[in-house]
Design a protein that fits this description.
The structure is a homodimer.
Chain A (H helix, E strand, L loop, with lengths): L15 E2 L2 H6 L10 E4 L3 E7 L7 E2 L3 E5 L20 H12 L2 E8 L3 E17 L5 E9 L31 H9 L11 E3 L3 E3 L1 E4 L16 E4 L1 H8 L3 E3 L4 E4 L5 E4 L10 H10 L2
Parallel strand pairs in A: 3-6
Antiparallel strand pairs in A: 1-7, 2-3, 4-5, 5-8, 6-7, 7-8, 9-10, 11-12, 13-14, 14-15
């Protein structure tokens, strides 16, 4: 199942298709039924947002998308749990990790399907849907339509694959700076201190309950941790979880990782830790 | 010396000023002489690009900027070495690490100075300038003029500081994926394996000679390493250096960190390591 990331040449953003079959024929979204086209190994190159899941939230340039599975196609209701290991979901997580763009097509009432351009998968987490079953959720953000047209490029085609690499860019708020200062840039999980140029230590401010929709976590010190990049990445991607008793656990292996180091000025709010435990149960 | 990040209200991008004095009065760039306004603690909020340094390269939305110091103001030539610890340079490095926007004003022949909007400091490194002395160089990239107007916000003013936090986003090329696969996502410096959701390991592809101007490093396996986020950050920010004999060293403490782990399929090019040694001597 080769994947073709990016725009399909000759298919401008806004193109209408009468049916899923037409959408598939144009190469915009290949499967006739599945909402996500992708696998864990290759990532997902396209999705369709068509009102098939009651928990989807389509906010235009921001989509809170429900993963695949557990859905009754007749009633559109969830009838069982979803999993991050299922093909389509695992594909979108690969796209999140590798920064690959995902084509988004939307169902348009009475007009079929419209190709709406490229989105970036910026987050995934677990939730309990309206119907009471576990669902995987994805936050997708629209990329500018002026993004370079990557064209039909299979990841196995080294020569023509985009060469861009966007490096780490973390915008620190004043609150994050406070927390990092209190902890003197030492990781609250492992005490690591990363020495960098100009006689500085490098650390990152990590939000416990994420900012922005749908989480709306606050950007204040009660919702921030000072972490090394390793534990920040592991925390962001659901590999590390912190209990309301501040006990840290490797969520994948189950191994205890000690207790979160605290500072007298730094009051971490238990409800934010509880929120995150629900995101990665 | 309070810093005010972002646009100055009432000063649209493109505003012309007759002199440095007028630029200072408007609050766009406070010092009358210095090219950089900032300190290590607070970061830099503005610079002026005015042809004062022979090594500057002004490419419009991309500026390769020369740090402060060692410059004869009469002849505009370098007469001694620059340092990352000097106030203005240390300020721009703080802005790089904290993701703060920098106001850029340019000298306009016959017309004084023009406010050209906000730029992001994305990289710094050492170089030897045209005149044979060490210089600090910065890569600055223009931010969209539609960026939220942060307004006059001192970092000490918690209430009104922008709450945006942009998380890590690394776009993997096909080449980076190959290297990560060969090393099975284990860091080539410390063997760390970061376990994350969906039974995966997280690693990052790090370019030795950076991509893009002015370095123009290639995006191929000879120029890539598989690193954990900690060592990627330390590598990016000049805290870790790898000799052409693959011996790793903490550049700040001088402490040896062992030898880079290699893989039979992964030929790292010595010339790229040599290039980077010149960036962080």
């Amino acid at each position: 199942m080769p994947k073709f990331y990016g725009h399909i040449p000759g298919v401008p953003v806004g193109t209408l298709f009468k049916s899923r079959k037409e959408l598939a024929k144009a190469g915009v979204h290949k499967p006739y039924m599945d909402g996500i086209h992708g696998t864990k190994t290759e990532g997902a190159d396209s999705i369709v947002v068509s009102g098939g899941y009651v928990d989807d939230e389509d906010l235009g340039d921001l989509i809170i998308y429900t993963g695949a599975g557990g859905n009754d196609q007749q009633t559109k209701r969830q009838v069982s749990d979803q999993s991050v290991d299922l093909h389509g979901n695992a594909g979108l997580i690969t796209s999140e990790l590798e920064g690959d763009p995902v084509r988004v097509s939307r169902g348009v009432s009475g007009a079929g399907f419209r190709y709406d351009g490229l989105f970036s998968v910026v987050q995934h987490w677990m939730d309990v849907g309206i119907d009471g079953f576990k669902i995987v959720r994805f936050r997708l953000e629209k990329l500018p339509d002026t993004e370079p047209q990557l064209g039909p490029t299979a990841p196995s085609d080294a020569a023509s694959y985009a060469t861009t690499t966007v490096t780490r860019r973390i915008r620190d708020s004043k609150q994050a700076r406070l927390v990092k200062d209190w902890h003197e840039n030492a990781c609250q999980v492992c005490d690591a201190e990363i020495e960098i140029d100009g006689d500085r230590l490098y650390s990152e401010g990590a939000h416990i309950r994420p900012l922005g929709k749908p989480h709306e976590g606050p950007d204040d010190v009660s919702n921030l941790l000072c972490l090394c990049p390793n534990h920040h990445a592991q925390f962001d991607y659901g590999g590390l979880i912190i209990g309301t008793d501040l006990q840290i656990k490797n969520r994948i292996t189950g191994k205890p990782m000690g207790k979160l180091r605290t500072h007298s000025k730094h009051a971490v709010a238990v409800q934010h830790l509880a929120y995150r435990l629900n995101m990665f149960p």
